Amino acid sequence: MRQGSVLVASLVVVIFLALTVLLVLAIYAQVTNKYALQQKKLLVSNVAKSAAYTMAETVKKWFTDGRNDLVQSLAAAPTSLSLPGFRGTIECSFTSIPDGYQRYRIRCTARLDGVEDSYSLTLDLRGGLTFKRAIDTVTMDVKNNNLKITGDVLVRQGSLDTGNNSTITGDVYLNSGTLTLGNNSVVDGNVLAVGNVTGSGTIRRNAIVTGAIGSGVTVLGDKTENASTTYVLDEISRRIDTSEPPLPATPTFFPNPAVKLTGTVISQSNQTYYTGNGPGNGLSIGNNETLTLRIPSDGRLWFAVKKLIIRNNATIEVEGNGVVMIYVEDDIESGNKLDIVPKLGTQSQFRLLVYSNRPGTFDFGNRLFVGEGGGFYIYAPEKTVKIGNSPNQSEVDVYGAIVANKIEVQNNLYLKLPDNPSGAQIPWFPIRFDSSATGTGQYGSYVEYGSWGQ
What we know:
- The chain is an alpha/beta fold and 454 residues long.
- 19% of the residues lie in helices and 38% in strands.
- The protein contains 4 helices and 36 strands.
- The protein has a 21-stranded parallel sheet that branches. A 5-stranded antiparallel sheet has the order 1-2-3-4-36.
- The protein is globular.
C-alpha cells in the first residue's frame, strides 16, 4: 500500500514537471513569436523607409543630371523594387502634387508574411543656380592677411596662401597646388590637396595630401602624406561635386528691350537698363547715391546691364523678399565703400545674384559690405573677381559666395556662406544655362525634402 502511494506520488510529480515544461515551452514559443513579429514589423518598417529614400536619391540624381525625362517616366506607373536579403515585396509610387511647383510624393509599401508598412516623403525639384560652397575658383590670390571664410573652399588649379591670422571655417580642397597657412591661421575642417601643406598654422580635422605636411603645421585629426594623386582626387570627388561650373545663358532680354533708367528705382524685370546715352554705357551709380531694387510680389526681379559702374560711397538697397538677378556682360567697376543692404525701415530678406558668361573683371573696390538679411552671390566662371580691403573682422563683410575664374582679395575680408539669410526660406536663382553645357552638376538644380513620415 505504501509502495503504491509512492508510485502515485512519483507519477503526479512527473506529470506536474511535464506540464510545467510544456507550459514553459508554450510561454517561450509565445514570447518568441511576439519577438519575431516585432522584429518582422521593424524590418518591414525599415525596408519601406529605405526604399523611399533610395527612390528619392535616384530621382535627385536624375534631376540634377538633367534627365527630367526619367523623372517623368517614373511618375507614370508604380514601381516594384527588390532588396537583397528581403524576401518580401516592395512597391513604390511617385506622384506629382498639383500645386504649381515641381513637387512630388514618394510612398513605398513593404510586405512580408502578412506584415505591411508604408513610408512617405515629398520632394521639391527646383531648377536654377545653387551655391553650396563659399569659394569655387580656378585660382585664388590672397594679397595680405586676416582672411576669414565660413564655408568650404575649392581651388581647382594652383596654390592657396591664406596669409597670417586667417580662418577658414569649412573644408579646403586643392586639385593641384600647395596650401600655405600663415601664422595663427586655422582651417577648422579637413584639407585635401594634390600638393603640400606648408607654413605654421593649424588644421583642426584631417589632412590628406599627395606631398608632405610641413613640421610647422599642426594637424589635430588624422594625417595622410604621400597619397597617390588618384586617391586624393577620388576622395575629393566623393565628398563634393567637382564638375566644372557651367556657363549661364545670356538672358533673352539682353540687349533688348533696352530701357533708360530715369530715377533711382528698378522694379521691372526682363529688361536691359542703362544710364547715359545708350545701352553700351551700362548702368552707373554715382557718388553717395542709392539704387533701390524693388522685388515684385512674385518674389523675383531679373534684369541685365552691359556693364555696371559704381562710384564711391554708393548703396544698393533691396526692398521686398525674394531674389534679384543681374546679368552683367562686361565689367563691374566699383569705387570704395559699396553697401548692399535691405531697405532702411524694412525687414527685407533677399538673395542678390550678379552673374556673367563672359571674360572680364568684377572689381568691388575697398570696403564691400553686405548687411545681414541679404545674401550676395557672384557667379562668373570666366571672370576675375576682386575685393579690396575690408574694415576689420569683427563682423561679416559679405554674406554670400563666389564662383569665378580667379579671386583676388586684400586684408580683412570676412565672407560667410549663409544657409538662408537670417533663416528666411529664400529660393535659389532660376536662371538658365548655356546650351553648350552637357550637364549642370551641383550648380544646375537642387532637391529639397519636404514632409516625411507615415
